[in-house]
From TrEMBL:
It is a multi-pass membrane protein. Residues 1-199 form the CNNM transmembrane domain. Residues 218-277, 284-344 form the CBS domain. GO terms for molecular function: flavin adenine dinucleotide binding. Keywords: CBS domain, Cell inner membrane, Cell membrane, Membrane, Repeat, Transmembrane, Transmembrane helix, Transport. Belongs to the UPF0053 family. PaeA subfamily. This is Polyamine export protein. CDD domains: CBS_pair_CorC_HlyC_assoc.
Length: 429
């Protein structure tokens, strides 16, 4: 066989090996969601790829048969074609035996390098860039090869199945998409510039509804504006002017005796019509939704949907009122500044290494702002103030501090045992 013929055969073998490399990596890296989109757009070959992914054994068996056979044949052809030429070149300065050894080594290195670069590295990196597009292109010739090598592939596949069964390994890949997978994809999209940072954060907030408890979004007990059933008209009008809210609980005595709520729109309508306001009027006071303080935000949304309300009073296990929550509060957790841009921020970044944070800020928001994966005793508190109390094991005082995770948390202001503000500073490395 002439040198030119041998070189042409090596090029063809490299091309065939590159085809099998692309077929292997494209099927393994193809995302089922993207394949489903291609199928919905009319790409029939995408359905074939998904069916192969469900039972990939015969496919990968054919790939390995092709790659190994080509590698062996490439070594034989390369050694026969290039070794004489290299041996003749090295014989100028070396003896016959040394020149033959050097020629064989040089031939081996050249052929191996060509296969590694053009039959392995380049096609696999190409396959990783657009796996779904390449998978649908190679699926037809691979189906043909699977028929040709079916008997041989069956033998190897059964042997591989026996090994999987012996070691108790799964034989089908798990294509379940978890919320961690979706978040990882959105983060990658945000880093690539395909998805805006605000959109990525919005998606992350939606998934947090199942993990964040209601106390992270509620108005705390000491900040609730409420009416007593026997409040006179003048007191009600003054309180509306001093504390303008959309909804007010109505209580029979103290705040723990909630009997209903009144909508600010109904009060304003009476004010505009110059009608007296009396909370003894059952037509004005509506039935209130009472929910426990251990519900998640997703469960609260479901409660709102079931009863057709957008306001709820939150009680603890002792039937004491701990806060109130509205639909807008829950949606503010998801939308952030998009829904309430004028609200006072709970986390204010002073500079690159320090933050001023309200004590009632939900601990999840603090962790996100500081890029912390976890905090100690995390299930024992829900706010930054709770974190400080758990870490100090007492009611914090002004200037008390805690260091954790490369940050120093220092209490700046305490009002009646309630932590108002905390200064968080990044510690030197």
């Amino acid at each position: 066989m002439s040198l030119s013929t041998s070189l042409l055969l090596i090029v063809l073998l490299i091309a065939a090996s590159a085809f099998f490399s692309v077929a292997e990596i494209s099927l393994a890296a193809s995302r089922r969601l993207r394949l489903r989109q291609l199928a919905d757009e009319g790409e029939a070959r995408a359905e074939r790829v998904m069916r192969i992914q469900e039972q990939p054994g015969p496919y990968f068996t054919v790939v390995q048969i092709g790659q190994n056979a080509i590698a062996i044949l490439g070594g034989i052809v390369g050694e026969g074609a290039l070794s004489p030429a290299f041996t003749q070149l090295f014989s100028i300065g070396l003896g016959a035996e040394a020149a033959a050894s050097a020629g064989f080594l040089a031939s081996f290195l050249v052929v191996t390098s060509l296969f590694i670069l053009f039959a392995d590295l380049f096609p696999k990196r190409l396959g990783m860039t657009a796996p779904e597009r390449l998978a649908v292109k190679v699926v037809r010739p691979m189906k043909l090869l699977m028929r040709v090598f079916a008997p041989l592939a069956w033998i190897y596949a059964k042997a591989a199945d026996g090994l999987f069964a012996l070691f108790g390994l799964p034989q089908q890949r798990d294509d379940k998409v978890t919320y961690e997978d979706i978040l990882a994809m959105t983060e990658a999209g945000a880093l690539a510039g395909v998805l805006a940072a605000g959109e990525q954060q919005l998606i992350a907030n939606v998934f947090e509804l199942d993990t964040r408890v209601i106390s992270s979004a509620m108005t705390q007990r000491d900040r609730i504006a409420f009416f007593r059933r026997d409040d006179p008209d003048s007191v009600i009008r003054l309180r509306i002017a001093a504390e303008p809210f959309s909804t007010y609980p109505v209580c029979d005595g103290d705040i723990d005796q909630v009997i209903g709520y009144v909508d600010a729109k109904d009060l304003f309508q009476r004010v505009l019509n110059n009608q007296p306001i009396s909370l003894a009027d059952d037509a004005l006071v509506r039935k209130v939704l009472i929910v426990p303080d251990r519900l998640t935000l997703a469960e609260v949304l479901e409660q709102f949907r079931l009863v057709g309300e957008d306001f709820a009073v939150i009680v603890n296990e002792y039937s004491l009122v701990v806060g109130v929550v509205t639909l807008n509060d829950v949606m503010s957790t998801v939308m952030g500044d998009l829904i309430s841009p004028l609200d006072e921020e709970q986390i204010v970044r002073r500079d690159e290494n320090s933050w001023l944070i309200d004590g009632v800020t939900p601990i999840q928001d603090v962790m996100h702002a500081l890029d912390l994966e976890s905090l100690p005793h995390q299930g024992e508190y829900e706010t930054l103030a709770g974190f400080m109390m758990v870490m100090l094991r007492r009611v914090p005082r002004r200037t008390d501090s805690v260091s954790w995770g490369g940050y120093k948390f220092e209490v700046l202001d305490v009002d009646s045992f309630r932590i108002d503000q905390v200064m968080v500073a990044r510690l030197p490395a």
